[in-house]
Design brief:
Chain A: This is TIGR03943 family protein. Chain A: Keywords: Membrane, Transmembrane, Transmembrane helix. Chain A: It comes from Streptomyces griseoluteus. The complex is a heterodimer of chains A (252) and B (345). Chain A has two domains: 100 residues, no CATH class; 128 residues, OB fold (Dihydrolipoamide Acetyltransferase, E2P), CATH 2.40.50. Chain A has six helices and six strands; from the N terminus they run αααααβαβββββ. Chain A has a five-stranded mixed barrel with strand order 2-3-4-6-5. In chain A, helix 6 links the parallel strand 1 and strand 2. The radius of gyration of chain A is 26 Å and the shape is elongated. Chain B is mainly alpha-helical and 345 residues long. Chain B folds into two domains: 56 residues; 287 residues, no CATH class. Helices cover 72% and strands 0% of the residues of chain B. In chain B, helix 3 packs parallel to helix 6 and helix 3 packs antiparallel against helix 10. Chain B is globular. Classes of the chains: A alpha/beta (252), B mainly alpha (345). Chains A and B meet through helix 1, helix 2, helix 4 and helix 5 of A and helix 1, helix 2, helix 3, helix 10 and helix 12 of B.
């Protein structure tokens, strides 16, 4: 790979990283929010390196090779002015980020994964619920209240959950789902709440759903199903923090 | 998955050109033409696939997202690793490591393993750093112990493990001990059985040379290592994304019944999924159907052997090395997890 091509490739990757992390929120589809500074720093570093290379080339300043004798260097298969062809593969993610970024994981992935098991909380982790109605809850919070809360505080309460639609498959019906990841989309996990009493909207639609617990199993134990009897459904914009199971932050 | 196959095919051809007995530097007039044709072919195929809507099918979209996620997630760590490796090459005096490490290789191995705790981040950073250590005269056995232990026992990863397994400090201890043990055993195995010829000739970087600017050497070393390792990273990410999307998690439950099969199965899964070592504890915690020992095996094998690491190692140290080393590491890591998991969990 020639010097010019290497410079162009470095700049392309740098631009891709900056585009995804600095100028847009695209990176949130792929990695956790905390990685943003590292992505920006990486993009800047690569662009700087490309710029230095370009300046040196423009000044006609061919850099000395590392082995003094050209032939000797090549007999070791080493020459820093060329890079292996496999490096071209880096152009694919860079171009994909710049021109054709794939969407966040959605119903396809959710339908193919098991529900994420909800962590068991100690009893004192269930304080009295606020009196607001409908009460906004996360899918995880709702599942914990239904399956673990010994005070049964969720009984009869109107709750509001947000997530996207995942059709349940052959049996019909649908789930309200969130995909959560810790580091990047490769370690994604799905939380699901079964929804009763409304026809399935198209897959991947983001919804805020209001309703009460669908009585199935014994409330406060593992037998209770994380399910909701729907009172009201209305579409919302995809939250900025789509990859967490938090109360929604809608784009401003 | 047509795109995957086709891309991997292109890579194979590209990879064969990168062997140490590389062709002469002066390119024959045919090669740029060939490269242009290949690039055009890839471009046209991608366009055709996009027109036909193949790229927008849910499965292909999920594949692209996961592939891109692995790459984007790993790039900053790869840059950190190659910057460190370039700096070690250009700025660190040649005899520093040989002075600091114990003279006897058998002792240097566990010391280097424990030293892995200082490199924060996940596994992509440790491959170039280990390579630069070897170049600076560190015995390969010690460098490999460092390579294996660094992504598994650094404070960030151990903290993540403690968070993912609340109220279960034995899991953190077991991970630390099993990872260190595997790293040390692999180092000693290399001392006994390793052959230099499996390694790609390590004379590639010669450190600082008199009369050259250290900064220019640093920049060139960084650029070369980054482009090289980056290409292999993308290759590994493609392979890992393929399994990530193609293996539905519901298959997992089928293997959770038998204790021995489940250890082997989760170890294999760790290799295929290539989850970053900072996140694998959370994935392990979610595999509730499996025994603690099997989940330990997932967390011990994952940072040491996975598809993107095998690709990175093949690119850095050579294919002959990567195949033998990864296979041996998997066996040792599974054995260590079974023993230590049996004792502690």
């Amino acid at each position: 790979m020639r010097r010019l091509a290497q410079t162009a490739l470095l700049a392309l990757i740098g631009a891709g990283l900056l585009h995804t992390a600095l100028f847009t929120d695209l990176y949130l589809r792929y990695v956790k929010e905390g990685l943003r500074p590292a992505l920006i720093a990486s993009g800047v570093a690569l662009l700087l390196l490309g710029a230095v290379n370009a300046c040196l080339d423009l000044r006609g300043n061919r850099e000395p090779q590392e082995g003094h004798d050209h032939h000797e260097a090549h007999s070791h298969g080493h020459d820093h002015s060329t890079a292996p062809k496999v490096a071209w593969l880096l152009a694919l993610p860079a171009l994909s980020l710049l021109l054709y970024a794939p969407p966040a994981l959605g119903a396809y992935t959710a339908a193919h994964s098991n529900g994420k098991p909800v962590a068991t909380s100690p009893k004192e982790r269930f304080p009295a619920l606020p009196a607001t109605s409908p009460l906004p809850l996360t899918l995880t919070g709702f599942t914990q209240r239904v399956q673990q809360d010994p005070t049964l505080a969720i009984r009869g309460r109107q709750v509001q959950l947000t997530g996207f639609v995942t059709p349940a498959g052959a049996g019909g019906g649908w789930y309200l789902t969130r995909i959560i990841f810790t580091c990047c989309a490769a370690d994604s996990q799905t939380v699901k709440v079964r929804v009763h009493g409304s026809d399935a909207p198209p897959a991947n639609t983001w919804l805020a759903v209001t309703g009460t617990w669908h009585p199935a199993g014994r409330l406060g134990t593992k037998t209770a199903e994380a399910a909701l009897d729907v009172r009201e459904v209305h579409p919302i914009a995809q939250p900025v923090n789509a990859y967490t199971d938090d109360l929604p932050l809608t784009p401003s | 998955m047509g795109k995957t196959d086709e891309l991997v095919g292109v890579v194979d051809r590209a990879a064969t050109v990168v062997t140490p007995t590389a062709p002469p530097a002066r390119p024959s007039p045919v090669r740029p033409l060939l490269a242009l044709t290949a690039a055009a072919a890839v471009g046209i195929t991608v366009l055709l696939l996009a027109r036909a809507g193949v790229l927008d099918r849910p499965a292909v979209q999920a594949w692209r997202t996961v592939c891109l996620a692995i790459t984007v997630q790993a790039l900053p760590f790869l840059i950190l690793g190659t910057v460190l490796s370039g700096a070690i090459n250009a700025f660190v005096p040649a005899d520093l490591f040989t002075r600091v490490l114990p003279k006897r290789s058998a002792l240097a191995v566990p010391v280097a393993g424990v030293a892995g705790a200082v490199l924060p981040g996940c596994e992509c950073a440790s491959v170039p750093v280990a390579n630069s250590l070897i170049r600076r005269g560190v015995t390969p056995a010690a460098a490999f112990a460092f390579l294996l232990s660094a992504p598994a026992i650094n404070p960030i990863v151990l903290t993540a493990t403690a968070v993912a397994f609340p109220g279960n400090p034995a899991m953190v201890a077991a991970r630390l001990v099993a990872s260190l043990a595997t790293a040390a055993v692999m180092g000693w195995l290399w001392l006994c059985f390793g052959k230099e010829k499996w390694l790609r000739p390590a004379v590639r970087h010669t450190g600082h040379q008199h009369g050259h600017s250290r900064w220019a050497e640093f920049r060139q070393g960084f650029q070369h290592d980054f482009l090289h390792a980056g290409g292999f990273l993308v290759l590994g990410a493609m392979a890992a994304a393929t399994f990530n999307v193609a293996v539905p998690r519901s298959v997992l439950d089928a293997f959770s019944g038998s204790p021995w099969l489940s250890v082997l199965f989760l170890a294999g899964l760790a290799v295929l999924l290539a989850v970053c070592s900072e996140a694998d504890a959370f994935v392990a915690a979610s595999l509730t159907g499996f025994s603690p020992t099997a989940r330990l095996a997932f967390m011990v094998v994952g940072p040491m052997v996975d598809l993107k690491l095998i690709a990175l190692q093949a690119g850095t140290f050579g294919r002959a090395f990567a195949v033998r080393f990864s296979a041996a590491t998997t066996v040792v890591a599974v054995a260590a997890s079974a023993l230590i998991g049996g004792a502690l969990l």
